[in-house]
Design brief:
By secondary structure, the protein is α+β, with helices and mostly antiparallel strands. 15% of the residues lie in helices and 28% in strands. It folds into 2 domains: 114 residues, Arylsulfatase, C-terminal domain, CATH 3.30.1120.10; 67 residues, Immunoglobulin-like, CATH 2.60.40. The protein has a 4-stranded antiparallel β-sheet, with helices on one face.
């Protein structure tokens, strides 16, 4: 794997933020709160006296810059990379990072999952994923990761529309970027791949063709290229 600014390791996802604004920021002040590049737009808008649009995902840093961190400030964040085709050869990945741990998943490659305690392991060389004593932590972080994927619209949803014979029309919404596959089952134990596709719009209809009964179950799985 080529290590670039698209990967989820600390040297890739982190950088320092330097700001100078004498009316608000005391000289020499430092802060360790989690801030993201998407916080810059609402910060600059607020400083300019412009109303911040409600659909902006970032948060203004003005309270932090003044020395008063809001009590509900973020304690974790979502990291994503959607492309793994040249010249970016870093696999599609999603990560959840909090103050001490990081969980990284690679769609279509469950055996690549990574869990790091970057406080004790700053170079992230000891993958803790699958460690029996940390199964609770991994499960909690995995649930939170998928919650954020859903909240931000990165998790696609599959909705049944109509069925005619062996053709089942479904609507997929959200999740632009990764490749997906529809899997089907009749017993919730054995799943088989039915169709693979890349979602390139906010909403798309797909037709699944099979010979299973109408009472079967379907699920949508993210895949890598």
């Amino acid at each position: 794997m080529t290590l670039t600014k698209w990967s989820s390791y600390e040297p890739s996802m982190r950088t320092f933020l330097l700001m100078r604004y004498p009316p608000l920021i005391a000289a020499g002040r430092t802060n360790n709160d989690m801030v993201l590049n998407m916080d810059l737009m609402p910060t600059l808008l607020e400083l300019a006296g412009v109303t911040v649009p409600a659909n902006i995902q970032g948060r203004s840093l003005v309270p932090i810059l003044s020395g008063a961190t809001p009590p509900d400030w973020r304690t974790d964040f979502l990291y994503e990379n959607f492309r793994d085709n040249p010249p970016n050869v870093v696999p599609i990945q999603f990560a959840l990072r909090n103050a001490t741990n990081k969980l990284v998943i690679y769609p279509g490659h469950t055996n690549w999952t990574e869990l790091f305690n970057f406080v004790n392991d700053p170079y992230e060389t000891n993958n803790l994923a699958g460690t029996p004593g940390l199964s609770g932590l991994q499960s909690t972080m995995n649930s939170r990761l998928f919650q954020l994927l859903d909240d931000t619209g990165l998790m696609a949803h599959l909705t049944a529309r109509s069925r005619s014979g062996s053709n089942f029309v479904m609507t997929v919404r959200g999740g632009i970027g990764p490749n997906y596959q529809v899997e089907a089952t009749t017993n919730l134990l054995t799943w088989r791949t039915n169709q693979q596709f890349k979602l390139e719009a906010l909403e798309a209809d797909i037709t699944v063709t099979n010979s299973l009964t109408p009472a079967e179950f379907y699920r949508l799985e993210m895949e890598s290229d």
